[in-house]
Specification:
- Helix 8 crosses helix 12 and helix 9 packs across helix 12.
- The strands form two sheets. The protein has a three-stranded antiparallel sheet with strand order 3-5-4. The protein has a two-stranded antiparallel ribbon with strand order 1-2.
- Residues 73-80 have low confidence and may be disordered.
- It has 13 helices and five strands.
- The longest helix is centred in the C-terminal third of the chain and has 23 residues, at 191-213.
- The two termini are 36 Å apart.
- Strand 4 (173-177) and strand 5 form a beta hairpin.
- With 241 residues, the protein is mainly alpha-helical.
- It has helices spanning 12-18, 23-30, 34-42, 49-59, 63-66, 70-80, 92-100, 103-123, 129-140, 146-153, 157-169, 191-213, 217-234, and strands spanning 8-10, 67-69, 144-145, 173-177, 185-189.
């Protein structure tokens, strides 16, 4: 009996956006051309089985978690777009009902709770969350510019400039002109900064541990993927269909 070919869709664009990878970077990871990645994301090309396994390995997922039948995607799309976000209405019950379907409120509440917990945990080290994030990024990858650190810490370049200046005053960070662009200052941790960020990370890591342990492995993966999809959508990385 002949097998009918089933159109396949994928979440490659979402997964790539979660890692802030360009199509060229993903192509390099997969050992294919950028045009192939473009065709995969656009649904114009179904990968061979070896390529599908390679894609799954690169993202640390199973093939089924990345690729799915087009009819499933259509059903998911239809279900997701039946949500009706009403305009403001009068009444306490209406307020509770309407805000309940606004995802932004739930995401913001979770962010505020996490920031409050990390702020308290870092207080005894004399660090703000932004300062800790910048120092942690510098521990992983020394010699970064303020613009690079701003992206890593998810703050504005102006905020990061203030953060780095204060860390420099505390002698936790040292800066020097870039060899490539003399007007760009490159930051690195001082020995004192390295020692402090490692101690501070023990406290901050405890909060991450508590959050992670509230979910199963699969739930953590799903939550990460869903938040990545929201981020990619709002940044314009996902085209509205």
């Amino acid at each position: 009996m002949d097998c009918l070919a089933v159109p396949v869709r994928n979440d490659l664009k979402v997964l790539r956006a979660q890692r802030s990878w360009t199509q060229a970077r993903l192509a390099e990871e997969l050992g294919v051309s950028r045009q192939t990645v473009n065709a995969l994301e656009a649904g114009r090309y179904d990968p061979s089985l070896p390529l599908a396994f390679t894609i799954a390995r690169v993202f640390g997922l199973t093939i089924e978690e990345i690729f799915f039948p087009d009819d499933d995607a259509s059903r998911m799309s239809i279900v997701s777009r039946t949500v009706d976000i009403p305009p403001p209405r009068r009444g306490r019950r209406e307020l509770a009902e309407d805000t309940g379907v606004r995802l932004g409120l739930h995401i913001k509440s979770a962010e505020q709770a996490m920031m409050a917990a990390k702020t308290e945990a870092l207080r005894s080290f004399g660090l703000t969350v932004a300062q800790y994030a910048a120092m942690l990024s510098l521990y992983y990858v020394p010699e970064q510019s303020s613009a690079q650190l701003a992206r890593a810490a998810a703050v504005t370049p102006q905020t990061m400039a203030t953060v780095i200046a204060k860390l420099e005053q505390k002698r936790l960070v040292a800066r020097r002109p870039s060899f490539d662009h003399a007007k760009v200052l490159i930051a690195s941790l001082t020995p004192e900064g390295e020692a402090l960020v490692l101690r501070a990370d023990e406290a901050a890591r405890g909060i991450e541990q508590r959050m992670a342990e509230a979910f199963t492995v699969r739930e953590r993966q799903q939550l990460t993927e869903m938040l990545g999809r929201v981020t990619a959508l709002l940044r314009g990385d996902l085209s509205a269909e």
